[in-house]
Amino acid sequence: MTTKDWNISKLQVLRQCHRKFYFAYETALHTFTNPYRRKAYELSKMKTLKMWQGSVIDWMITKEILPAYVDRQIPDYQAIAKRGVEVAKKQFEFSKNQFYHDSDISRSEAGADWAILDVHESLTPFQETDLLEIYATIEKVLLDFPTYPSPAFGKNMEQYLLSATYLRPDAKQMKYEYDGVKVQPQIDLISYMGKSMHVIDWKVTEKDDADYSRQLLLGGIVALRFSRQKYREEKWRPLPTLADVNLIEFNLLNGKYKEHVFNKDAVANALDSVYLLSDDQEELSQSRPWDELDIEDYERTSKVSTCAVCNFKNLCKHVILNGLNYDEAKYLKLVQDQELENLTV
Ligand code: SF4
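Above: the input record for the complex with iron/sulfur cluster. Below: its predicted structure, written as tokens.
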């Protein structure tokens, strides 16, 4: 049996719309060998301005702030906040120039500058003031971060991070594999205090999203497994249990956090949903190569609200109008016509 990789975004997309899943996970391919597949890839990476704001904050926390605490250093927050805004400005320029269309500029070469924003790729309208607001928010969040309340009573974020036994930021490589399904949650931070651990997910949008709890649950399962494995290797006793795991969703935009339940039932439900959806995908693609897949097997959702925020909405419309085929020139024309329509309503 082929092992399937699962993460929360994949689960979320499969639940929302099978056609979206077809574009995002069956068709998207980063190479420039097939324009249709490359377009699906670009759209799968495209961000709205608000999502992008969150990703820059997340990046700065993961790459600059937490590594300093891992080394027991106090980060220079003034400098980091300034750099955060610089990173955002460079990414905006990269996207504005559409350098991501250039096959000579690889994503790894572009590094932190690489970004695709919907305002450039899908010509989504925006105001200059939106941009200024985003730069100001990035700066403010990064400056406020050390004074945010923490999950440890009476400690602010800085005191909390300094008091952890061990910090494991960006634990995205942790996997859980069972019965042909590999679960790889995006864990932003695991903070260990002896046997117990806080699995933390940075939330960077205002949206109240149920999938944060699923993401955290899968993160908790993987973190506990790794911890128990370590205890066994080191012959430490007693082994950590479910009660030693705390799941924390931390909203970086307002400094508030929320704890999620981690018990036997919650864990079983989270794993069930992964296995059920994994079966759904297997039924759809049956592990066939892309050119043997039939787009018509991937049904479109009837929910207008899902389509309204779908990254692939122009591509979806284009292939329907074009006999289920992709034509780059016609697709670009559709995006431009759509922009005109947006400007006139
Ligand atoms: S636009 Fe709607 S139907 Fe088309 S892929 Fe997106 S969510 Fe699915």
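Notes for the reader.
The longest helix spans residues 211-234.
The mean pLDDT is 89.
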